[in-house]
Amino acid sequence: MVTPRTGYAYLDDPGPVLAFAHRGGAYHPEIEGLENTLAAFRHAAELGYRYLETDVHVTRDGVLLAFHDTVLDRVTDRRGEIAALTLAEVREALVGGRESVPTLAELFDAFPDARFNIDLKADGAVPALADFLAAREAWHRVLVGSFSRRRTTRFRELTGGRVPTCATPVEIVAFRLLPSRAAALLTRKRFQAFQVPHRRGALTVLTPGLVRRAHAAGLQVHAWTIDGAAEMHELLDRGVDGIFTDRTDILRDVLIERGQWRGDR
Known about the structure:
Blueprint: E1 18-22, H1 38-47, E2 51-58, E3 64-66, H2 87-90, H3 104-110, E4 115-120, H4 125-136, E5 142-145, H5 149-159, H6 169-177, H7 180-187, E6 193-197, E7 199-200, E8 203-204, H8 208-216, E9 220-224, H9 229-238, E10 242-245, H10 248-258
Parallel strand pairs: 1-2, 1-10, 2-4, 4-5, 6-9, 9-10
Antiparallel strand pairs: 2-3, 7-8
């Protein structure tokens, strides 16, 4: 596999495969129930993961949080919508009965050598993240995406091409359906990576053809979220450039077995 060089340091580090700890490795047996917490990300870092995935929301008083859901209800002992709460109010909630919801600033400070894959989960998070990165000059530490075309487009405008971004669903469909030359023209410089599931129901999204066409256009392909060793091997054989996983232990073992582990340990 030859990983395309994108011109962005985040994606062009030496090494064969990017291993992403999805929400810190949400289903690792030792930290299950503690997704997107400092404890989860610390666990992933101790395993050797340098690429950490998180989602971001913004509080009523403008603070970026590492949190997936729109509301606190599913994973904490409190209820309420993130956008309607202040940071102080969110701090009253505990994930898994023991961990507070971290701010993005806390993650950046706690893991200064880590890089973050960030999913924009709310409209308000778009300018907040752009301002956050500008204040820290941390363009090189993030890859940003969203299911929302509007959010992604706005983020690209606000950051002026300094930050690598992922294809939106519309861009993915266009790339799949258009002839190769037209697809390359459409996608040129707009984004640097496809982040897609292996399958959606009976449909295979991450096909060998998608990988070949993406690489020919200088784009990377990352698969989410893969938790079984057999499927990891299948996708790595197909030539993917990165894998997201909730089972950080399994992906690490697979990559070590294949001689493709690029972590710190």
